[in-house]
Amino acid sequence: MVRFIDVYERLPSSAPVGHPHIVDRSNEETDKDNLRVADGICTMLYKYNPSVLRDFLNLQIPVIEILRREQEGSSRYNLLIARHERVVTLLILVIQCGFMRDGEFVDVLVDFGITHEGLWVPLTGHTDMIHPTGPNKAEILDDFGTQFASQIVYWELWEESTAKEIKVSIERNRPDDDYEDE
């Protein structure tokens, strides 16, 4: 069972499944039961820099994109997480996440909407081989999100090195775009 921790006030560990949490990586027995894309993304952003998570959750910032770029020639894909202010039916905004190579999405690409209550709802998505449709579409997309979150948490994709870097691009109304360590 995935365990969550209370290190960020706005993301309580007691929130229901589908709401964002910070994953407790101190327990090596962490599996993906109840792990959702919201958990993987918020854990990555918090571990990378709590200020980036704060801005990602700040709805006053209309656009934020996080690109984790691998070294040229790496066999691993680049990772993109983007939040764009876009109202879709009852959702307040849309999160797009996936793995990229040469500027094109590959492997898993999933769009999630966030309800006013904070629940992350799968909207669209695909992998290299599967383009879900029909009555099981939401369940399949949620599974894609779990796979995506598992890769983030298992591989600790918030870590930077000379072989990989994380770039944060934001569009906001205040001038301080600096993410120094807090």
Topology:
Blueprint (H helix, E strand, L loop, with lengths): L3 E2 L16 E2 L13 H12 L1 H8 L5 E8 L7 E7 L6 E11 L2 E12 L4 E7 L10 H18 L9 E8 L11
Antiparallel strand pairs: 1-2, 3-4, 3-8, 4-5, 5-6, 6-7
Summed up:
This protein is α+β, with helices and mostly antiparallel strands.
- Structural class, by secondary structure, is alpha+beta
Order of helices and strands: EEHHEEEEEHE
Q: Residue-averaged pLDDT, rounded?
A: 78
Q: Could you tell me the number of beta strands? A: 8
Q: Give start-end ranges of low-pLDDT stretches.
A: none
The Rg value, from CA coordinates, equals: 16 Å
The proportion of residues forming helix, as a percent range, comes to 10-25%
Q: Could you tell me the strand content as a percent range?
A: 25-35%
What is the tally of helical segments? 3
Largest sheet: 6 strands, antiparallel
Strands in their spatial order, largest beta sheet: 7-6-5-4-3-8
Give the overall silhouette: globular
The separation of the N and C termini measures 31 Å
Task: Write up what this structure looks like.
- This protein is α+β, with helices and mostly antiparallel strands.
- The protein has three helices and eight strands.
- It has helices at residues 37-48, 50-57, 137-154; strands at residues 4-5, 22-23, 63-70, 78-84, 91-101, 104-115, 120-126, 164-171.
- A six-stranded antiparallel beta sheet has the order 7-6-5-4-3-8. It has a two-stranded antiparallel sheet with strand order 1-2.
- Helix 1 (37-48) runs parallel beside helix 3.
